[in-house]
Amino acid sequence: MNIAIVTGASSGLGAEYVRQLDTNECLNEIWVIARRQDRLTELQNQVKTRLRPLVCDLTTPDSIVWLSALLQKKKPNVRILINGAGFGKIGSYAAIDLKQCEQMIDLNCRAAVAVTQTVLPYMHRGARILEICSTAAFQPLPYMNIYAASKAFLYRYSLSLGRELAGTGICVTAVCPFWVRGTEFIGKAKDTADSHQVNNFILSSRREDVVRRSLKDSCRKRAVSTPGFACSLHRILARIMPVRLLMAAWDVVRK
C-alpha cells in the first residue's frame, strides 16, 4: 500500500499539500494528521484519494506511540512524508509566556523529528521527505525569536539527514517559504499583546504556488526549496551579509 503522510493537514499549507498530492501522485491513501477532526472530514470531500484521519496532538508523546503502532500494524510503503505541523508567535520575549515557547519548540522541532524518525523505516528508494521550515531559518528574527530558532533547527536537521540518506535513494527537502497568503499562520502569530512588533507582510506568496514549487523541487531531489522570489533572495543575502546587518534589515522590514 503506497501512502503519503501529511502533518498539520487541517488547514493552510498542509491541506494544500493534500490537495496537490491527490492530483499529482498515485497513492492508495493519504494519512492526514491534525487536531481538528471536522477539518479533516471536510478535506476528504475535496479530494478523491482516500484519507485516513489521525486526530492527535503531536506535542504529546502518546501521539508518536500511536503513530508507531499504526505503522507497525499496517506496514505501508510511505512514498512521501510532509511535516507541515508548526506555529509561531509574534512579540517580545515578555509577551510570549513560557508555555507557548515550549509548545513552539515541541511542535516545530521535537514533533517533526519524532515523526520523521518513526516513519523512516517504512520509506524506501524513491521516497521523499519535505520538512516545512521557513525563510526564518536563515537568520535570527527579533520579536519572532523562538519561531526563527526552531525553524533554524529544523533546517539544519533536514540538511544533515538528507546527507545521511544520500545512499538510500530517499530525498529530504527543507522547504523555506517567505510569508504565505491563504493560511492561518499570520492571524494566529499576531494573537499576542505585542503583535504590533511585526506589521509588514509584503511579498507574500500564494499557498498554491509554494506547494507546487516545493513538490517540484523535491522531485528534483533538491536539498532546499525556496519557492518564491523573496525567500530565494533572502537565502542569498543570508550567505553574504553579517548577521547584525540582517537583523537591522529585519527591523526596517517588519515595521
Layout of helices and strands:
Elements: E1 2-7, H1 12-24, E2 29-34, H2 37-44, E3 50-55, H3 61-74, E4 77-83, H4 98-119, E5 128-132, H5 145-164, E6 171-175, E7 180-181, H6 185-189, E8 205-206, H7 207-219, E9 224-225, H8 229-240, H9 243-253
Parallel strand pairs: 1-2, 1-4, 2-3, 4-5, 5-6, 6-9, 7-8
Helix pairs in contact: 1-7, 3-4, 4-5
Provide a compact summary of the structure.
With 255 residues, the chain is of the alpha/beta class. It has helices at 12-24, 37-44, 61-74, 98-119, 145-164, 185-189, 207-219, 229-240, 243-253; strands at 2-7, 29-34, 50-55, 77-83, 128-132, 171-175, 180-181, 205-206, 224-225. The strands form 2 sheets. The chain has a 7-stranded parallel β-sheet, sandwiched between helices. A two-stranded parallel sheet has the order 7-8.
Structure description:
There is one protein chain. The protein is of the alpha/beta class. It has helices at residues 12-24, 37-44, 61-74, 98-119, 145-164, 185-189, 207-219, 229-240, 243-253; strands spanning 2-7, 29-34, 50-55, 77-83, 128-132, 171-175, 180-181, 205-206, 224-225. 46% of the residues lie in helices and 16% in strands. It is globular, with a radius of gyration of 18 Å. Helix 1 crosses helix 7, helix 3 (61-74) runs parallel beside helix 4 and helix 4 (98-119) runs parallel beside helix 5. It has a 7-stranded parallel sheet, sandwiched between helices. The longest helix is centred in the middle third of the chain and has 22 residues, at 98-119. The mean pLDDT is 95. The protein contains 9 helices and 9 strands.
